[in-house]
Design brief:
- The chain contains 3 helices and 7 strands.
- The chain is an alpha+beta fold.
- It has a single domain (about 5-135), classed as Pnp Oxidase, Chain A.
- A hairpin with a 5-residue loop joins strand 3 and strand 4 (about 35-40).
- The protein is globular.
- The two termini are about 25 Å apart.
């Protein structure tokens, strides 16, 4: 099973001081062994990716708990807000996660009521994986 076959992964992005922040994310396979996901341009994950393209990914459950003995893969992220990569990731996420996309979008809107606009899935992220550390088994960033 490859990382893109997983339903959820813990994607760790890094603060300016180097501290890792893991976030549970949906993931889809892309051409050339790359993987992708979407995020919001108002999210902390997006802000951290603007500062550093370094990421790690590791299989997890829906709550971000890393699967015991699963490999930790390091990679580099690129973001897109339009174009072919953006459209491909949008399409693949909708195909893989189906009705969950609408449910997630509803809860996103509900959770941000009265707090102003919070875009949903308006940034696509392409990750080029560089390697795996077998059996890492701990959450990136210590969570």
């Amino acid at each position: 099973m490859t990382i893109s076959d997983e339903k959820y992964v813990a994607v760790t992005t890094f603060r300016r001081n180097g501290t890792g922040v893991p976030t549970t994310t949906w993931i889809v396979p892309l051409e050339g062994g790359q993987v992708g996901f979407w995020t919001s341009s108002a999210s902390g994950k997006y802000k951290r990716l603007r500062n550093s393209p370094k990421v790690t990914v590791q299989p997890s459950d829906a709550r971000g708990r890393v699967k015991a003995g699963s490999p930790l893969s390091e990679g580099t992220a690129q973001m897109a807000t339009a174009g072919a990569e953006f459209d491909e990731i949008q399409s693949r996420v909708r195909a893989k996660y189906g009705v969950m996309v609408g449910i997630s979008k509803f809860f996103n809107k509900l959770g941000h009521l009265g707090k102003g606009s919070f875009p949903y899935g308006d940034v696509a992220v392409v990750i080029t994986l560089g390697g795996a550390q077998p059996g890492a088994g701990t959450a990136p960033g210590g969570a």
